[in-house]
């Protein structure tokens, strides 16, 4: 283990990775590998908290792992694995859950939203406790996520503080890392709602692996606002502001700069500009994906899980001792 600070994050293997996932979280995952001891996870135990098809899960896990590698997660610099292959996550979730007040879980908006469709189930309810365990089992200092995860991360911080208060300083209280641009990418069809995998309307999101002509089509159909000015005003012009954020990220130029240059441009031309930048920016990822071989990715994920188990077990030996569940090992 290095003495660098640790960063942890996860992504669910549900549906395909979209521009919101990429801009809000995954781009940061790649960047942070240089600065931090980075630990990344395909959170399959989270994915099964909503209805799913078991026969598709193995395939979608693999596809998600490949996508992460194609985007630039580098197993020679980061730890990458499937959550379910490291049982310490679930064990710590139980130990943390026994002392998590129901009032805190009742406030989680994601539970309220998702349980409307999936029903009120314990797994969905306990999801934020498992997320806290994911982070704390690695004693992570920071968590790169989009804005939609702020409430869950606050709960993880509360859980860490409560544990430390009861058993002594054990877990760093994790900080959230969100990007300046792209922390909440909005739906192309309803720019007041976040872009999301579960939106039934395909044209609401751009997938990282969409074909170039699909990207152009979706962006051309993106809902824009009244008026004709290209201006950044997320409240009154959420559609154009969303497109400006996307263009800013893909061109590495500030929003002010882009507004100055394109202020008088017609919406149609502006959308084409955004589409060109996105297509160009995602080409490298699409090309990388095609070079990845399933067997090799499977082996990388197994190695990642074995390393992660060893690291998580080091923490769990201490946690078990602290909570009174013994210091010895059973062999
Ligand atoms: N629209 C978004 N803008 C910025 N960041 C986003 N993230 C998700 N949507 C946006 C971030 O992507 C990471 C991985 O997300 P996830 O797959 O683990 O969970 P999610 O938040 O449930 O993703 P979706 O697409 O929004 O799925 P559904 O439709 O099921 O709710 C996280 O860091 C998240 O913040």
Please give the CATH architecture of the largest domain. 3-Layer(aba) Sandwich
The molecules bound to the chains, other than polymers, are: adenosine-5'-tetraphosphate
Beginning-to-end CA distance, first to last residue: 25 Å
Rounded average pLDDT: 96
Shape category? globular
Radius of gyration: 21 Å
Return the CATH class of the largest domain: Alpha Beta
Enter the CATH topology name of the largest domain.
Answer: Rossmann fold
Question: Short summary of the structure?
Answer:
With 331 residues, this protein is mainly α. It has helices at residues 19-32, 44-47, 54-71, 88-97, 102-106, 109-118, 122-136, 150-167, 212-220, 238-251, 255-262, 267-291, 294-323, and strands spanning 6-11, 37-42, 78-82, 142-144, 175-177.
Topology record:
Layout: E1 6-11, H1 19-32, E2 37-42, H2 44-47, H3 54-71, E3 78-82, H4 88-97, H5 102-106, H6 109-118, H7 122-136, E4 142-144, H8 150-167, E5 175-177, H9 212-220, H10 238-251, H11 255-262, H12 267-291, H13 294-323
Parallel strand pairs: 1-2, 2-3, 4-5
Helix pairs in contact: 3-12, 4-7, 4-13, 7-8, 9-12, 10-12
The structure holds adenosine-5'-tetraphosphate (AQP).
Residues 11-12, 14, 20-21, 23-25, 145-146, 148-149, 183-185, 194-198 line the site of adenosine-5'-tetraphosphate (AQP).
What does this structure look like?
The chain is mainly alpha-helical. It has two domains: 6-182 and 293-323, HUPs (Rossmann fold), CATH 3.40.50.620; 202-289, Tyrosyl-Transfer RNA Synthetase. 54% of the residues lie in helices and 7% in strands. Strands 1-2-3 form a three-stranded parallel β-sheet. The protein has a two-stranded parallel ribbon with strand order 4-5. Helix 4 (88-97) packs across helix 7, helix 9 runs antiparallel to helix 12 (267-291) and helix 10 crosses helix 12. It is globular and about 70 Å long. The two termini are 25 Å apart. Adenosine-5'-tetraphosphate is lined by residues 11-12, 14, 20-21, 23-25, 145-146, 148-149, 183-185, 194-198.
